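Incident log, entry 3
Record: Exonuclease (253 residues)
Problem: checksum mismatch between cached and fresh output.
Input:
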Amino acid sequence: MALPPRSIIRVIDLETTGQAPPAHGVCEIGWQDVALQPDGRWELEGEGGSRLVNPGRPIPPLTMAIHHIRDEDVADAPGWHDVARPILDPWPRRVALAAHRASFEEQFCTSSLTRGADWICTYKCALRLWPGTPGFSNQFLRYFRKPEGMEHERGLPAHRAFPDAYVTAFHLRDMLNEASVAQLIAWSKEPALEPRVRYGPDRGKEWCEIDDDALAGFLDDRDADIRFSAEHELARRRGGGAVGRSSSMDLLL
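Fresh output:
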């Protein structure tokens, strides 16, 4: 009798020529798996890896200065569609994919390449699980939280695909040992719930610290994460009442 497939989530990190396809392309992909163990806890699984990718266009100096991948490094590498599918949709199938600020990876790792896989955004989930953390970048979380078992050198250099995926995998492991896969996916599908005001006179304050008039000013903000965070705070002040009506004035009435 065949054993059921294990629960595994694959962490993905990309290095690219820029911020948005199709104008920009992938020049490296890295991955690291996190698996549910027999004792019910999640741990890193396997060695992970990375592949260079020919992005089909020159790498701008601006992005070369971040990841240090040069045109000559990828000149003989395979193209994105030749590399992506076996990494993004391996057998046995992963229960989800994950990345830090996953919306970036999702632009390049399209549904056709992932076979419609769900994504976990470790940035959004860190905001939910560890709101008191002073910062939420992948590397800040690494040095602030100091995840148990991380090999320092294996997570270097930063801004290369495998080391970044390796670091993210430790954040994901710790998140999965605090919350369910379903909960992390659900949080990842919503806008980011920011614990503190990002700009303005109240910058750096927790949402609960600002007055109603200041809160109203954020309810129509153009940034979806800020609107969501302000509405969440308003709902808290109302005891969990409904939010999302047509205007900030309506919401406060």
